[in-house]
Amino acid sequence: MDSQGRPTPAALDEWRHLGGRAGFETVLAYLCPDVALRQARAAAETRRRLEREYQKEQARDEATCRRSVRRDPRAVRQKTALVTTGEGGGYYIADGPSPSDPFGQAIKDGLVASSGPAAAVMTGVENDDICVTVRAYRKAPPLVLKGWDRVQEVGIDSPRGTAKLYMPMDTPPNLPPLTAAGPGPYRVRVHVRNRDAADLPNSPLEIHLVQVFPGTLKKPVLHKSTDPRR
């Protein structure tokens, strides 16, 4: 404060820099500048602490994702990412919009359903992070069931050969195209674990592995299910 008890320009600048806003806080800054500045500093430190905790948690979860599956040398393209689900959860493997959205059928099925150029996959969590590994193949990879709660595949059409993973109403994650053989019919094989524990406190991250490879079969095939959501 200055000699007349008013906040100095430097104090006001610091208060604004720390996130001070108009309205009541502006009045407080003039009537009780020391209190306002202390509150602004405390709030800024809380924001910094929460950001540090968030970044630490993200780094830990990203490391968990990298360890969740081994790389497959047979895959033409593959990538693992920590992906944030939106409202309702789930994601698409799609090469454009489908005339009939398969999301409702995926909810009934419990995991995955397809229609035309799109497959919808349900997650156990919503508005939360999951680990997703996507892999593109030029031919069907060996079927691996060990270590997964549920493994299921469906067929999609890829008229442009550009099918990717999409989040409903959100920016797509930075994952590669999955139709390695160009335009044509494909199979989408989805592996999941930890979905049944996804809503529990301190639960492990939900893990998804999506393999996409050429195939003409259209019907869904359930290879394994120990998931109580079935």
In short:
Helices cover 26% and strands 27% of the residues. The chain is α+β, with helices and mostly antiparallel strands.
How would you spell out the order of helices and strands? HHHEEHEEEEEEEE
Shape verdict: elongated
The strands making up the biggest β-sheet line up spatially as: 1-5-9-8-6-10
Mean pLDDT: 83
The helix content, as a percent range, equals: 25-40%
Structural class: alpha+beta
- Rg from C-alpha positions? 24 Å
Number of helices: 4
Strand count, sense and barrel status of the largest sheet are: 6 strands, mixed
Q: Can you tell me the residue ranges where pLDDT is under 50 for at least 5 consecutive residues?
A: none
Through-space gap between termini: 66 Å
Instruction: Count the beta strands.
Output: 10
Instruction: Tell me the strand percentage band.
Output: 25-35%
Can you characterise this structure?
With about 230 residues, the chain is α+β, with helices and mostly antiparallel strands. Helices cover about 25% and strands about 25% of the residues. The chain contains four helices and ten strands. The protein has helices at about 10-15, 25-30, 35-70, 105-110; strands spanning about 75-85, 90-95, 110-115, 120, 130-135, 150-160, 165, 185-195, 205-215, 220-225. Strands 1-5-9-8-6-10 form a six-stranded mixed beta sheet, covered by helices on one side. It has a four-stranded antiparallel beta sheet with strand order 3-4-2-7, covered by helices on one side. A hairpin with a 2-residue loop joins strand 3 and strand 4. Helix 1 packs parallel to helix 3 and helix 2 crosses helix 3 (about 35-70). The radius of gyration is 24 Å and the shape is elongated. The termini are far apart. The relative contact order is 0.16. The mean pLDDT is about 85.
